[in-house]
Design a protein that fits this description.
It is built from 13 helices and no strands. With about 260 residues, the chain is an all-alpha fold.
Length: about 260
């Protein structure tokens, strides 16, 4: 278990492999690298379900992480360049809610891995169903009208005009993601091993909590459009910190939700 956690943790570092896709998107448009990200997610998730060795599982998860990182970033850029500024944050919030809903649906697949043996492969191979939707995405995802070729360099983010803003947002995002991943990674284990819930109850509890928490996407989006991004971001980080601490101190079902 410890070895597998290390492998999956290292696979997460593969998100840096998405940086070339960002470079490509700045010079040749958002559509193609976004669709490449989708294809990587489908390929990595499906192949992970066929892995017969730990290194193969880690490699295919790295492919998956590269795709999710590209999709997450470029999806926001596509929306920012497509929708009206008056509802831009709201639209991106809907995008975040869709991502959260996908994660919630993935939780429903957890009981499929309880059978032992090769049962864990089922939850990975389900991803292959998305391959059927890829042709429709290729036809329907347009290029953004706000895109134009630029000659910027990555070094501009380190010490250029936008460096201060970039590093503040990047560091805040890094810390929030690291904290959130740590909290959620051990949630299922705590609910089952320490509190004594069965897998089915755990799944529904996480879904219920995620559904309530999902309201934050819509509320946060509206607040960001009306009160500003900075105030809303600080409020969101504060709520996330408090919720994570409460998740590991509460024992009653209503409090956990």
């Amino acid at each position: 278990e410890a070895q597998m956690s290390l492998i999956v943790g290292l696979a997460r570092l593969a998100a840096f492999a998405a940086l070339p896709l960002g470079w490509f998107a700045d010079r040749h448009g958002r559509r193609r690298p976004f669709l490449i990200g989708v294809a990587l997610v489908l390929a990595g998730g499906t192949l992970a379900g066929t892995a017969v060795a730990a290194w193969q599982f880690g490699l295919f998860h790295a492919v998956l992480r590269t795709g999710t990182a590209a999709m997450a970033g470029l999806g926001v850029v596509i929306l920012a360049e497509t929708v009206s500024p008056s509802v831009r944050a709201y639209a991106i919030s809907f995008y975040g809610a869709a991502v959260s809903l996908g994660a919630g649906m993935a939780i429903l697949a957890l009981p499929l891995a309880d059978g032992g043996g090769d049962a864990w492969r089922t939850s990975h191979l389900i991803v292959s169903v998305g391959i059927l939707l890829l042709p429709a995405l290729i036809r329907r995802v347009p290029e953004t009208t706000g895109w134009h070729p630029v000659d910027g360099l990555w070094s501009d983010l380190a010490h250029g005009e936008w460096a201060s803003r970039f590093w503040k947002v990047a560091i805040a995002g890094f810390l929030a993601s690291a904290y959130g991943t740590f909290v959620t990674s051990f949630t299922t284990e705590r609910l089952v091993a320490q509190i004594g819930l069965d897998t089915g109850t755990t799944v529904w509890l996480l879904l219920a909590g995620g559904t309530v928490g999902g309201l934050g996407f819509f509320i946060g989006g509206r607040l960001a459009d009306h009160l500003g991004r900075r105030v809303t971001s600080i409020a969101a980080l504060t709520l996330g910190l408090g919720g994570g601490i409460a998740l590991y101190t509460a024992t009653s079902t209503p409090a956990l939700v």
